[in-house]
């Protein structure tokens, strides 16, 4: 497959649909130097973007947390996403909305005078973890920790916060793993590099409290599904020593959807009945 910069199709940029290969920014774009950008990852199923408005609202919130005010409303962002899908003839696709500080009068840490820009791209994308979606992903344990919310805006889906995630995933892939699990700055279980994490023990579900990580939209959806089934969900701090006692594990995220985990470091988990049930029910929900 061609690189992401060399494809046919259209990308929405600042209110206009442009040819895919012409969707460019200047090398002195502020976001390229100082990570002043936020984004959303979404999936469209049968012509409908799952939780689309919630993603658009979060894009605006993330921008505000980075001291950027988007000049596009939620309604305008929604229109942009669906216009891009239509222009590319896609009804099942991954949707990437991105907002950033562009090139302008400022070229230093401060950039208040630079324009805020936005783009939407869509493409066909299969399972994020490949066949791990069915047999269980193998995870490394990252040496990097999610930072304290006193040092980063952890509630923002901001590009710069993924730097340690990229390094963690590269290290994991070098070991033959699909991804890596990260601890937070206190040593509690946090998340994978781009997905939230859940565990099962004695028929109850445990997931990290999202006070230093992104409270994913898929995470919130799955918690609601579990509670609707009458399954107890514990949102809490999870110690590293507890990994040995959990029976099942799965990841959630827009890209990951619901992906079972078979191994984290030296700890093994079964792809059990509850994991399979939630994965199946989530698939039905997003396509309903």
Automatic annotation (TrEMBL):
It holds the Pfam family Aminotran_4. Keywords: Amino-acid biosynthesis, Aminotransferase, Branched-chain amino acid biosynthesis, Pyridoxal phosphate, Transferase. It is an enzyme of class 2 (transferase). Its cofactor is pyridoxal 5'-phosphate. Its EC number is 2.6.1.42. The keyword Magnesium does not apply. GO terms for biological process: isoleucine biosynthetic process; L-leucine biosynthetic process; L-valine biosynthetic process. The keyword Transferase applies. Coiled coil: none annotated. Pathway: Amino-acid biosynthesis; L-valine biosynthesis; L-valine from pyruvate: step 4/4; Amino-acid biosynthesis; L-isoleucine biosynthesis; L-isoleucine from 2-oxobutanoate: step 4/4; Amino-acid biosynthesis; L-leucine biosynthesis; L-leucine from 3-methyl-2-oxobutanoate: step 4/4. InterPro entries: Aminotrans_IV, Aminotrans_IV_CS, Aminotransferase-like, B_amino_transI, BCAT-like_C, BCAT-like_N, Class-IV_PLP-Dep_Aminotrnsfr. One of its GO terms (molecular function) is L-isoleucine-2-oxoglutarate transaminase activity. It catalyses: L-valine + 2-oxoglutarate = 3-methyl-2-oxobutanoate + L-glutamate; L-isoleucine + 2-oxoglutarate = (S)-3-methyl-2-oxopentanoate + L-glutamate; L-leucine + 2-oxoglutarate = 4-methyl-2-oxopentanoate + L-glutamate. Belongs to the class-IV pyridoxal-phosphate-dependent aminotransferase family. NCBIfam families: ilvE_I, PRK06606.1, PRK07544.1. Acts on leucine, isoleucine and valine. This is Branched-chain-amino-acid aminotransferase. It comes from Cereibacter azotoformans.
């Amino acid at each position: 497959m061609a690189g992401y910069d060399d494809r046919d199709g259209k990308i929405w940029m600042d209110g206009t649909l442009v040819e895919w290969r012409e969707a460019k920014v200047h090398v002195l774009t502020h976001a390229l130097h100082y990570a002043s950008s936020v984004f959303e990852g979404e999936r469209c199923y049968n012509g409908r973007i799952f939780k689309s408005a919630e993603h658009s609202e979060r894009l605006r919130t993330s921008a505000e947390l980075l001291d950027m005010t988007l000049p596009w409303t939620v309604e305008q962002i929604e229109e942009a996403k669906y216009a891009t899908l239509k222009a590319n003839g896609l009804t099942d696709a991954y949707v990437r909305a991105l907002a950033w500080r562009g090139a302008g009068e400022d070229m230093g840490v401060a950039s208040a005078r630079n324009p805020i820009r936005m783009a939407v791209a869509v493409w066909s994308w299969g399972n994020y973890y490949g066949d791990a979606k069915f047999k269980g992903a193998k995870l490394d344990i990252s040496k990097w920790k999610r930072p304290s919310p006193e040092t980063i805006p952890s509630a923002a889906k901001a590009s710069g916060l993924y730097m340690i995630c990229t390094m963690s995933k590269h290290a994991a892939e070098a070991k033959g793993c699909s991804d890596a699990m990260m601890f937070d700055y206190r040593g509690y279980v946090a998340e994978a590099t781009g997905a939230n994490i859940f565990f099962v023990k004695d028929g109850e579900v445990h997931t990290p409290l999202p006070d230093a990580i992104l409270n994913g939209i898929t995470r919130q959806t799955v918690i609601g599904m579990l509670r609707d089934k009458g399954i107890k969900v514990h949102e809490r701090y999870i110690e590293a020593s507890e990994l040995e006692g959990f029976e099942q594990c799965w990841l959630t995220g827009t890209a990951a959807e619901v992906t079972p985990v078979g191994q984290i470091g030296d700890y093994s988990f079964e792809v059990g009945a509850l994991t399979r049930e939630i994965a199946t029910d989530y698939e039905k929900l997003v396509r309903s």
